[in-house]
Design brief:
The chain is α+β, with helices and mostly antiparallel strands and about 120 residues long. The chain has one domain. Helices cover about 20% and strands about 30% of the residues. It is built from two helices and six strands, in the order H-E-E-E-E-E-E-H. Strand 2 and strand 3 form a beta hairpin.
């Protein structure tokens, strides 16, 4: 009599291996998500204001950047990511696009230069 192997014994092993492969590839593909708050105190020099904002920017290992910023209490005309340590002014490396009232997006396909990426890795972006 020919018997068909019981797949119940090897299926958990295959699922575990597939899950591990997906988790491993996801770890390498994802970047650092930076969540932050904007305030007048963070300006250089600091300013007294009730304006505020929040943002979420992701920087990936391939140096691509994505994200958004939302502001409140200010009629902003532009939004940027700058090189510079906290408390210091620096050159613009990413210009965000206005996507509505008080809403800014990093344009699709934005990529940091090697120098800007190294500044980010050093905590200076």
């Amino acid at each position: 009599m020919n018997s068909v192997p019981n797949s119940r014994h090897w299926l958990p092993g295959i699922l575990a291996a597939a899950t591990l492969a997906i988790a491993t590839s996801s770890t390498f593909a994802t970047g650092d998500e930076l969540l932050f708050k904007l305030s007048g105190e963070a300006e250089v020099p600091p300013v007294a204001t009730t304006a505020s904002g929040t943002g979420a920017i992701t920087i990936n290992p391939d140096m691509t950047v994505s994200g958004k910023v939302t502001t409140s209490g200010v009629a902003a005309t532009m939004a940027h990511i700058h090189v510079g340590k906290p408390g210091a002014n620096g050159a613009v490396v990413v210009t965000q696009a206005k996507s509505g009232d008080n809403f800014w997006l990093v344009p699709d396909g934005t990529r940091l230069s090697e120098a800007a990426y190294q500044s980010y890795k050093a905590g200076e972006l």
